[in-house]
Amino acid sequence: MAKIRKTELKKFLSQLSKEELETEIMNLFEKYSQIQEHYTQDLGSDEDRNRLLNDYREKMRKLFGSFRKLPVISQMRKVIAEYKKISIFPYELAKLMFYRIELSLELYEEMGFLPSAFHNSTITAYEDLCELIKNNLLFAQFEREMDILICNKGRKTNYLGPDLVEVYNRYWNKPFPKKIKYHISYLNNII
User: What are the tens digits of pLDDT across the range 45-79?
Assistant: First the structure.
């Protein structure tokens, strides 16, 4: 069966009365949780949106489990993609993307290494985050978090540090702060 086009949908909807439109929307709302979540984001309070964001953060956390095994990369992407579909504010999507990278750093710390596919996936996730922040002019709001993420966040090691600095420099057309560069080069000598 071929997908219906927007023009066909618009034609159908234009023929409905206000009451029929309301019924149609209510049916969709009751049937699809994604629509319920979208309206929670759109019409809910800050508390409702935070609760929903925390639910997605918990989904992401469950993928990492107890850090004894690697999460499936496609499942991590799926959680981000699902939230992206319902998200109203890019700021909240960026928070979830940051959380995914923080969990990856915790996994590095716990395991002491990660396969290159997972490492590359984490760098790509950071690039996606930088793209989101740049496109939505959120750098000032997230600059501190980006610094903390790159410069180790209190961990003994930071295997991703140099790669994250490279992405940072590419997106923001400025070098990462020198004092933090020294910190990262010091960490690289320890590893």
Answer: 889 889 999 999 999 999 987 666 778 889 999 99
What is the token pair recorded at 173?
């057309």
CA-based radius of gyration for the chain: 21
Task: Give pTM, 2 decimals.
Answer: 0.77
- What is the tens place of the pLDDT at every residue in 147-156? 777 776 555 5
Q: Which domain holds residue 91?
A: 47-190
* Four-point Cα dihedral 89, 125, 129, 100, nearest 10: 60
* Structural domain includes residue 175: yes
Phi-psi region of 112 (alpha: psi -120 to 50; beta: other; left: phi over 0): left
- What domain count does the chain have? 1
